[in-house]
Amino acid sequence: MTHPAHDAVTLAEIWRGPFLESAHLGHAVVCDDSGQIVHAWGNPDAVVLPRSSSKMIQALPLIESGAAAAHNLTPEHLALACASHQGATIHSEKVGAWMDHLGLGDDDFRCGPQPSRDDDVRDAMIRAHETPCRIHNNCSGKHAGFLTLAKHLGAGPEYVDPSHPVQTAALEAFERMTDETSPGFGIDGCSAPNHACTLHGMARAMAKYAIAPDDSPQGQLRNAMAQHPDLVAGERRACTRLIRAMGGRAAIKTGAEGYFIAILPDQKLGVALKIIDGATRASECAIAQILVKLGALDPDHPEALAYTNGPIHNFAGLHTGYLRAAPTLI
Q1: Considering only CA atoms, which of 330, 280, 326 is closest in space to residue 20?
Q2: pLDDT score for 49
Q3: 194: β partners
Q4: pTM value?
């Protein structure tokens, strides 16, 4: 297997005064509605783990199986199933109500406990000497979806086991959407298998979501993400900010270690990108510039400028440099 850094190109840069101080290399691919590549930077055939950027594929069996309809799941539930939320009250309360509806509790999750990434919730829990729970895990919505599917299938409680029916269904959906046979998987931060594919395969999958009818399983997940950006991530997070900046006309999703996808229905395009060093600041910058390039994001929108040409300030408030998209993306 080719090393993922092979043929990577610069996608984001740090400038301090007149000096290029740092550069982030990676790969990015844009596919059209036929699955063909219309733009590529770096190596489209680089095989990497999409991490949480694949959650809308992992959630596909939830709808296709009939589990979502059987349990009266709403677009809010579907958005949470695709989310990497920050454990704010809006997230934990909605996931908690979902679990109550299933007759399940925190111990049924197989993701680990995670401190809330919401400052107010985290600080309040510290003051109250409360221990973080699994429901605060950024993947608890995805796991609530897994548990819903497991209950619908009458399957056992160890739903993150690669041989469990939930995970075999997720793999089947992943390979069907990417049109690839995955070479394998790694265990994600939430303990579930995360399957690898090429950047081309993931962009091709996202293009399928982009052109899917609204009432299709793919269309329902895409629209849930676009309509509920507050549930997909949270306040001050790039996914939420950029979906809002695009007026809810598109869905984007980050993944750990510098991955990002975009689903662009108006343009009938899918996007996948990976920053080789795993830097989130670079993946956010690169995806924002690609959204601008493809006409999905107004280049003069404050949120676009914040990510594509973001000023860097020091502790004294002095403007010391910029995080900028690389010229190759412009």
Answers
A1: 326
A2: 98
A3: 186
A4: 0.97
